[in-house]
């Protein structure tokens, strides 16, 4: 069978297919993702050749962001781990745009079959031209197909004919969650669901009734709204899965500022959650800055340690949402090992990916509660200077607290240390 060797692609708009010379112990796509014209914003281009991980493609008039390449990296790593574990990989790219995700799943994750679906049939030529780098195949050997349906219809069709998928990638806009039920129905048990939200207003607490309608969570403004956005998205999936008799496990959660974009990868299992300890409410005190979690049976007992009464007027409550770890440490460790195997984290070519995955592993500590503390905000609240992140982490560990960096914001820490103790430790660190 013919397979694509991406490094052989020239800088012209024509594509060449070559026979594979050996099994792939390393990814052939070890270069940086790049473009002949880098942009820091969303672009609509008509016939400009782009390059990502040495794969050349065109975007036409489709919606495309270079900055989303990191999210595509994570999807490819996960798809590859699934293929290695299960032996087969069938994917629905439900909103494929120009088809770059589908192309990468075929060329890098070696997917057996990819449905590249986009509701806009005007994109057909661009998608087909890009995917034509991979031999289409026929019959049972068919590798890919291009369809033009609404995402829900594409998933319903798979369900109705009993063609259940290993992975569904839904790169949607805003806070559209109407596809969740259809996605669960179209997935195999143990399959992967890669979800997206770009609704920074709802995660920031500025559209609480919108988040309530989309994800069943009433979100109010909190200083770690970008993490709330990930937990809101997972929580909405947890709720929808429970209605169908399933439960989901987050394998990783990724925030990127450029949309903003919230992406979570979930594994789907049969059976409801045995307990609700990871699905509840988050509180934040506007007076002292302390954050906490609240279970359903504690809703009438909410308060903050800085208040003399349980009914604290400074307390802000959001939820329900996912309260558990944002990532699975062992799974992300496998992703990091694969990225190293492929040369994606070698010096000078992928240090950002290596750092991202390493911080995700830190964040996976189940002792860490939702939220993070921005060091500059803590210093302003306490009217003091801020110790270095490294020194503060060491001091917290010495005091017996769990602590990690946050992949969402560089100058912030996640910890189970109460805010009053956090300030005291910071003061002691400055005086030492």
From TrEMBL:
Top-rank taxon: Eukaryota
Pfam families reported in the protein's UniProt record: TRM
Residues passing through the membrane, by range: none
Region (Disordered) residue spans: 1-35
Keywords: Methyltransferase, RNA-binding, S-adenosyl-L-methionine, Transferase, tRNA processing, tRNA-binding
GO molecular function annotations of the record: tRNA (guanine(26)-N2)-dimethyltransferase activity; tRNA binding
Stored InterPro entries: SAM-dependent_MTases_sf, Trm1, tRNA_met_Trm1_C
Catalytic activity: guanosine(26) in tRNA + 2 S-adenosyl-L-methionine = N(2)-dimethylguanosine(26) in tRNA + 2 S-adenosyl-L-homocysteine + 2 H(+)
EC number: 2.1.1.216
One of the protein's GO biological processes: tRNA processing
Family: Belongs to the class I-like SAM-binding methyltransferase superfamily. Trm1 family.
Name of the protein: tRNA (guanine(26)-N(2))-dimethyltransferase
Species of provenance: Cardamine amara subsp. amara
Lineage: Eukaryota, Viridiplantae, Streptophyta, Embryophyta, Tracheophyta
């Amino acid at each position: 069978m013919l397979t694509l060797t991406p490094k052989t692609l020239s800088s012209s708009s024509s594509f060449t297919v070559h026979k594979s010379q050996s099994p792939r112990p390393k990814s052939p796509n070890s270069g940086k993702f790049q473009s002949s014209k880098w942009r820091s914003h969303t672009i609509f281009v008509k016939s400009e050749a782009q390059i990502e991980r040495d794969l050349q493609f065109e975007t036409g008039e489709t919606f495309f962001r270079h900055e989303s390449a990191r999210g595509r990296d994570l999807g490819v790593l996960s798809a590859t781990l699934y293929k290695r574990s299960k032996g087969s990989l069938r994917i629905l790219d439900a909103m494929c745009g120009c088809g770059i995700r589908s192309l990468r799943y075929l060329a890098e994750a070696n997917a057996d079959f990819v449905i590249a679906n986009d509701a806009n049939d005007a994109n057909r030529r661009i998608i087909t031209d890009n995917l034509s780098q991979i031999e289409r195949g026929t019959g049972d050997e068919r590798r890919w197909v291009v369809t033009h349906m609404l995402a829900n219809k594409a998933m319903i069709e798979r369900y109705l004919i009993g063609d259940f998928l290993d992975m569904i990638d839904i790169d949607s806009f805003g806070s559209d969650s109407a596809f969740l039920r259809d996605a669960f129905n179209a997935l195999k048990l143990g399959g992967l669901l890669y979800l997206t939200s770009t609704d920074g207003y709802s995660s920031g607490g500025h559209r609480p009734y919108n988040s309530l309608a989309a994800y069943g969570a009433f979100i109010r403004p909190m200083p770690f709204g970008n993490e709330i956005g990930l937990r809101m998205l997972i929580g909405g999936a947890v709720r929808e899965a429970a209605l169908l008799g399933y439960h989901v496990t987050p394998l990783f959660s990724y925030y990127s500022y450029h949309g903003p974009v919230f992406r979570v990868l979930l594994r789907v299992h049969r059976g409801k959650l045995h307990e609700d300890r990871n699905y509840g409410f988050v509180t934040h005190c506007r007076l002292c800055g302390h954050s906490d979690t609240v279970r359903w049976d504690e809703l009438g007992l909410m308060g903050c340690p800085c208040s003399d009464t349980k009914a604290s007027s400074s307390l802000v409550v959001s939820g329900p949402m996912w309260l558990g770890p944002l990532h699975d440490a062992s799974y992300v460790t496998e992703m990091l090992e694969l990225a190293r195997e492929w040369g994606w984290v070698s010096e000078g070519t992928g240090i950002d990916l290596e750092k991202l995955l390493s911080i995700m592993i830190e964040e996976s500590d189940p002792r860490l509660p939702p939220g993070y503390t921005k060091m500059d905000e803590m210093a302003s609240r306490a009217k003091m200077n801020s110790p270095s992140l490294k020194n503060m982490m060491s001091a917290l560990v010495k005091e017996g607290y769990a602590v990690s960096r946050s992949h969402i914001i560089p100058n912030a820490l996640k910890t189970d240390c109460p805010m009053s103790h956090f300030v005291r430790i910071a003061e002691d660190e400055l005086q030492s």
